[in-house]
Design goal:
The chain has about 230 residues and is α/β, with parallel strands linked by helices. The chain has a single domain (about 5-95, about 155-230), classed as Alpha/Beta hydrolase fold, catalytic domain (Rossmann fold), CATH 3.40.50.1820. It contains 11 helices and 6 strands. The chain has helices at about 20-25, 40-50, 65-75, 95-110, 115-125, 135-145, 150-160, 165-170, 190-195, 215, 220-230; strands at about 5-10, 30-35, 55-60, 80-85, 175-180, 200-205. Strand 1 (about 5-10), helix 1 (about 20-25) and strand 2 (about 30-35) form a beta-alpha-beta unit. Helix 1 (about 20-25) crosses helix 11 (about 220-230), helix 4 packs across helix 5 (about 115-125) and helix 4 runs antiparallel to helix 7. The radius of gyration is 17 Å and the shape is globular.
């Protein structure tokens, strides 16, 4: 029997991000996708996941969800069989980050969640994918289904995030990194630099994809993860 696959969603995201992956892998694996609405710390998000783990599992996190995956690794390493981290970072809070994130919250308070579509979601998506309704519209609906309260709490979680570089450096189980080539938020260069911190890391690049690779490059993500998962079987 394969170990279960646990998908962890990012900021303003839910199971929508993993729809293709769950459909693809559910033939051979038990899959669960977690979202973290109304939660204001990565540590608590990780505890939510750990409470549901019945056995060592394959943890796959995207963006903020990748940071949650690393926190699961810190808190319960024996429950992580393999770990895959997509479109993410391990850096601490940068100087301008609080101001930029609070400005986005303030504008969203003034204009509603619709504001986030043009000023947060679209910049996350590769420009050539923004006009593809089958790609963009489900993500748009996903964001609009989130609440301002949840957005604020998740931002607080990111701005109070624990240091994870040492956790990342110490990973000795199979470690996969994936990134969209056109990801402007968590860049390819950033992922290449992280690979230098852990020689165990395997990096794959998704073509014609921005930050939202599980949706933008679903087929590439699925094939790449499948290949990685089968390497040491």
């Amino acid at each position: 029997m394969h170990p279960p696959i646990i998908f962890l969603s990012g900021l303003l995201c839910d199971q929508t991000m993993w729809k293709s992956q769950q459909a693809f892998f559910s033939k051979d694996y038990s899959t669960t996708a977690f979202a973290f609405p109304e939660m204001d710390s990565l540590e608590m998000m990780a505890k939510k996941v750990i409470a549901q783990l019945q056995e060592p599992s394959i943890i796959i996190g995207h963006s903020m969800g990748a940071r949650v995956a690393l926190e699961v690794m810190r808190q319960a390493p024996d429950l992580v069989k393999k770990i895959a981290l997509l479109d993410f970072g391990i850096h601490p809070v940068k100087a301008a980050e609080p101001e930029n994130r609070y400005a986005l919250i303030q504008s969203t308070e003034q204009h509603g969640m619709d504001y986030l579509i043009d000023h947060w979601l679209k910049p996350m998506v590769y420009e050539n994918n923004r006009d593809h309704p089958q790609l963009f519209n489900p993500m748009k609906e996903m964001v609009l289904n989130q609440t301002l309260s949840s957005f604020k709490q998740q931002i607080h979680a990111l701005l109070t995030r624990p240091a994870v570089e040492q956790v990342f450096r110490s990973i000795q189980i199979p470690l996969y990194l994936g990134v969209g080539r056109q990801d402007q938020w968590s860049t390819l260069e950033q992922h290449q630099q992280m690979c230098e911190l852990n020689p165990n890391a395997q990096l794959d690049i998704y073509e014609s994809s921005g930050h939202m690779s599980p949706v933008e490059a679903a087929d590439q993500v699925n094939a790449s993860l499948k290949h990685w998962l089968e390497q040491d079987e």
